[in-house]
Amino acid sequence: MIDSLARLQKVFQYQFSQRGLLESALTHRSVGKNNNERLEFLGDGVLNFIIAHHLFERFPGASEGELSRLRAHLVRGVALAQLAREYQLGDYLRLGPGEQKSGGFRRESILAGAMEAVIGAVYLDGGFAAAQDMVFAVYKNILAELSLEQGLKDPKTCLQEYLQSRGRPLPEYRVLSAEGDAHAQMFKVACILAEPELTTEGTGDSRRKAEQAAAQAALASLTGK
Prior knowledge:
By secondary structure, the chain is mainly alpha-helical. It has eleven helices and three strands, in the order H-H-H-H-H-H-H-H-H-H-E-E-E-H. 58% of the residues lie in helices and 10% in strands. Helix 10 packs across helix 11. The longest helix has 22 residues, at 37-58. The termini are far apart. 31% of the residues are buried.
């Protein structure tokens, strides 16, 4: 556990002085009473404030409604879970036997909650500045591509809602290739549907853009739009 926590701290570029906070942040309620729910609550508040302040400063001409929609887009569960997957946070979670057997380390709600809990743990351990630095580091690529239009539903969200409304399995996104130098990579991603059987591909200069392109292609195939 110590070695894995050391690796995770390196990934997040933050060294805890109170290692127990990080351990708590990674402990799901299925393990027992000492779990990450309180840290998740705290991290949610810290994250919402950091993102709200950033949007307020970045888009001075935006309305309250536009800022609210964009913040919701950035801090929603699906976005946090995707970030958790990118940082392989599921590999570090402590889960009870039932959650382990059911694949809880892949569950969106558990991953999103753990990401919020880690933010809360960083805030308690290092203060607001440390938490803000971590959030900006984690959201770096997303914030670099940010625009007010993203407050509208993106293709991945639309595809997920389309499938859920019909009781169909959610899509799987698989990176097919990542070519080029680290600062100028081009990604190719497949969007794989089980029902109906369908695979589409998308490309982009970030994994997120490639996934969105693949999801848009799937939506077009399903809806004819």
